[in-house]
Amino acid sequence: MRVGLDGYPLCEPLTGVGHYTFELARALARNYPSCQFELIAPFQFDVSVLAQIQREQLSNLKLINLNLSSVRGRWWSLDLPRYIKRAALDLFHGTNYELPLWNRRCTVVTVHDLSSLCYPELHRKQLARRMRLRLPLTVRLAKAIITPTAAVKQELCTELRVKPAKVTAIHEAPRESFSPVSREAAVRVRKRLGVEDDFLLFVGTLEPRKNLVTLLKAFAQIIRETSLRPQLVVAGGEGWLMDETFVIMKDADIRERLCLTGYLHDDDLRALYSSCRAFIYPSLYEGFGLPPLEAMAAGAPVIASRAKALLETVGDAAILVDPLDVQGLAQAMMDLLRDESRRVELTKRGHAHAAKFSWARTAELTYEVYQRSAKISQPAHPPQRSRVSPAEPD
User: Fold this and answer.
1) Rounded distance, CA 372 to CA 388, Å?
2) Which residue, 47, 51, 215, 247, shows the most beta carbons closer than 10 Å to its own?
């Protein structure tokens, strides 16, 4: 079987969809050595992707860079369909909501969430408009649809009237690099980044959906009303519509206790996950929520919001709070800062929970979707299921 995957998300420093695309492609190539997989992009791949592919040396996973000077109005309608036809792919997987518009090959698409449809005010107007126009077309074009959680599957079937049989929920997984690091290694990273010993951690692109406003207000309450003086470390690249958040960050009560690191690579993130007092993820809406699961894998106790998909992702291994409850979030953070035994217990529970998920299992379930979609009856020797990543609820 020859499969093409959308490599466009790998042309810039990787965030959520980029990590999903790369980890899935790598796991597919490992699982099914008799199949050929191609990551197809219009431009040069990010240097981190090139380095990882070189280290892996997977002969059945290729990076296809079409070296286009521009993709304005052409990538999905002309350049990509032309390549798919020339390459005679058996199937194309759009890993980021989009599919080629003119294409007779079998197609599968991943819809990570419906935030741009359900909460357009949290996105740039241009993106929200594009998704409103293109997503209904994409789900009609696709032979099959993958969502990261049953929660997103339900939303998709309800909002866009998609038949449930067309949609498969397949959980994602923490990246292999996320495991606890030694105290000495964590101290070296923290020193370089200006992070103190006693700190709370948030990781994610700085955008309204991540709900930093509530986190900052809860943190300010701790600083104003208690003797606790943790540092709040915010790790992530700047996104959009963040004016209100940046105003709150200038508050005299908290600005000296904030550390903004910007975008961090995995080694630095792992050190912070491994040594934080707690990882905080108060998101208003998620499709899956990889950061809290990766934090658990690296040894962090987690506080997360009760967003539907996050309930699926973190299970009972995190402290859950209402995403708009400032007092509740502040209390949860204070409880963990003061209670070492509670932190240890949550760390153990979270680490065990994260171990239930694997990219090998994600790739196996995804390949089953490919087989059904392309009507190929014989599997390509899938691996033994040594670890389980749950998909649809049992």
Assistant:
1) 21
2) 215
Q: Going by CATH, does the domain composed of 183-354 fall within 3.40.50.2000?
A: yes
Give which of 163, 138, 141, 140 is closest to 153, Cα–Cα. Answer: 163
Q: Give kind and range of the element (H or E) at residue 303.
A: strand 302-305
Q: Which CATH code for domain 2-173+358-374? A: 3.40.50.2000
The set of residues, in sequence order, having a beta carbon less than 8 Å from that of 125 and lying 6+ positions away, is: none
Q: Two tokens at 70?
A: 């521009």
Give CA torsion, residues 383, 309, 267, 26, to 10 deg: 30
**Average confidence (pLDDT) per 10 residues, the chain, 394 residues:** 95 91 97 97 93 91 89 81 92 94 87 89 82 91 96 96 97 94 96 96 90 94 96 87 80 86 93 98 94 97 96 96 97 97 97 97 98 68 48 41
Nearest to 296, CA basis, from 276, 311, 312: 276
> pTM of this prediction?
0.89
For residue 12, the 8-state DSSP code is S
CATH 3.40.50.2000 domain span(s) along the chain: 2-173+358-374, 183-354
